[in-house]
Amino acid sequence: MVVDAQVQPCQRYLRYLATAQVDYGWFDSTLLLSHTGKLMKISQIEAIPVRIPLKPERRMVSALGRHDVSQFVLVRLRTDDGYEGVGEATVTARWSGETVWGATAIIQNLLGPVVNGCDPRDIDTISARMDAVAVDNWFAKSAIEMACWDVAGRSDDQPVFELLGGAVRDLTIRNRFSLGAFSPDVARDRATQLVAEGFQTIKVKVGTGDTDDIARVQAVREAIGPDVELTIDANGGWSDESARHCLTELSDCNIAIVEQPLRRGDYTNLSRLRSDLGIKVLADESCFDAVQLRELIQQKCCDAVTLYPGKQGGISNARRMAEFAEGHNIPCTIGSNLEWDVGAAAMMQFVVSTRNVCIETIPGDCLGPSYHEFSIVKEPLTIEGPFTTLPRRPGLGVDVDWDLVEEHRIR
């Protein structure tokens, strides 16, 4: 069996995790196993590629291009005793490098088989097995891991956040709104409408050309007035020269934080930019794993970090990184890849259970389902204006409408 072939490398990786536990405070899934009692086994993992359009008024424009249609992968995980869990790989090739076709293939042919037969509540072993056979592929791994958490919660009749130690904040959170890189007039009108809907933080996409970026941000600041918080996100689309020019021109716009001004991995220039201009930097694309997080902190590249389950390869990894950042006085917030209902539910479980996801002072966004034309779950998360509410239902808290999924399967 494929699983047996991976036992030796997995044992080596597990020994590595044991040595890392002191430094990173890693979650011990054996506590989850001992709490829930009887063992169960993963018997089947199915990867389903799905296509859903965005609402015309919510289509995104950024330094990465246009995003009109989402193509993501849903994972349907079954156990030998009849439980079922669901996960979502929120893949975007221009952002994470993963594609809907690649994620489907690696889940079906590599990651799924290597965890088949494992107890889905043994999260650490499952993550170790996936890491032992493939580097990166964070969103594909996360889809399996969140499906395991979903099963763990359903089998114990508890929301995932309770299995993670309980809620540390209210189940209703306030979001910022990410405004696309539209023309100044469109950006001004949409920002005005968003403030009227109750949004207190507007994030404007930049990195699409210096002149346009400057005009867009200035138009939004003029529209929202001096009291609404304004942030910007370049998605790594600025060169060092462009970043310095644009940020200097926008110095009177009172920008609270600048998200990913330079391309990922450019730690040296990012540190210098932050120091020279005295800006607050939020790292996102440059922070996928624990090593990158450590480099950002050691090289003084950022004031805060964006984490979310998909990008970090799962809820557990995201929590470990949040704990590590907290130990170095770096606050975290939640980002978005325009998740659907399942990915957004996993994000909410992470947010409400993780102390160092400081959405009260650095607002994030869990609004992805509201960007899409329809929901793929029977009882969607409640999203009203800037507020998203997580229900107290078992597991991730959402039940997928599989008939609807089948209608929109990519064939």
How many strand segments?
Answer: 15
CATH class annotation of the largest domain = Alpha Beta
Contiguous low-pLDDT stretches (5 residues minimum) are 1-27
Helix percent reads 40-55%
CATH topology of the largest domain: TIM Barrel
Sum this structure up briefly:
With 411 residues, this protein is an alpha/beta fold. The chain has 17 helices and 15 strands.
Can you give keywords for this protein?
single chain, 411 residues, alpha/beta, Enolase-like, domain 1, TIM Barrel, 7-stranded parallel beta sheet, 3-stranded antiparallel beta sheet, 17 helices, 15 strands, 43% helix
Compile the SSE list and pairings.
Layout: H1 2-5, H2 7-24, H3 29-36, E1 42-53, E2 60-62, E3 65-67, E4 69-79, E5 84-89, H4 100-115, H5 123-133, H6 138-156, H7 160-163, E6 172-174, E7 177-179, H8 184-196, E8 201-205, H9 210-224, E9 229-233, H10 240-249, E10 255-259, H11 267-277, E11 281-283, H12 290-298, E12 304-307, H13 309-312, H14 315-327, E13 332-334, H15 341-353, H16 368-371, E14 382-384, E15 387-389, H17 402-407
Parallel strand pairs: 7-8, 8-9, 9-10, 10-11, 11-12, 12-13
Antiparallel strand pairs: 1-4, 2-3, 4-5, 6-15, 14-15
Helix pairs in contact: 2-5, 4-5, 4-6, 5-6, 8-9, 9-10, 10-11, 12-14
